[in-house]
Amino acid sequence: MRKLIVLIVISLSLFGCSSKFVYNHIDWLVLEFVDDYVELDEQQEDFVSDKISQLSEWHRKEEIPNYIEQLDQLIVIEPSQFTIDDMRVHEQQIRAHSQRLVARVAPDLYQITTQLSDDQVNEFMDNLRVRHTKYKKKYQSLTDEEIKQRYRQRIENNLENWLGALTKEQQQLLTRWANELQITSRDWVTHQTKMRIEINAMLGERLNEALFKPDFQDLMFNPDNLYSPQLAGKIEYNRGVARTYLTQIINTMSLKQTLHFRDELEDWKELALDIQ
Hints:
This protein has helices at about 1-10, 20-25, 25-35, 40-75, 85-115, 120-140, 145-165, 170-180, 185-205, 210-220, 230-250, 255-275. The protein is mainly α and about 280 residues long.
């Protein structure tokens, strides 16, 4: 269920929406995603489509102006003067965007979840298990060095999307960044197993509001509370590493990279205004 929220956040936010067409067909995309986990009946599909249409309208009017405001702030930053504190401010704003969206979606998701049959719950859990198994197989045979290389490649791809080609100095910072990260992939495998047990037990009580609703709310709004202390510690550490090195890379941006970055932001702003 949290993955459904993530899909909606990605699809309806400027940081994941790639075109107006995608935005305008979010109801179809969500149904396609849900279908990968559980087959809804016709009445349930109509309910989801209707709620997504309402969500999209709310999002256009209430949320997109917030994104435009933050984009305007980012467009005018001076890279050489950017600080870790500035980074934290923008992180908090993005987190607030997502939390508002989760708050808007959660009641409808709660309602559709209570309508699932036992067969649908079993189907959902089976498909969730399959996807978790794929993740486990993806990482279980890799060495620590290979995993960190994947981390590095992923970060590099993201940076080049926003800045263009990286300089030699930035490549060195990127290497140090990846090397300092703590590996979390095995912790995520353990966490996924734990979550399947938790979700299965929670869905078993979906018709008992007194038991189901508090657990559902916690899963939606406080998923970090379900992390093991070890995983939570690694995530927080890696966030700190990311802030440090990303700030340093921003500080070393060339004029060409700055113009590239601003052009990307202007494209997102133009899309936002068009959707609005």
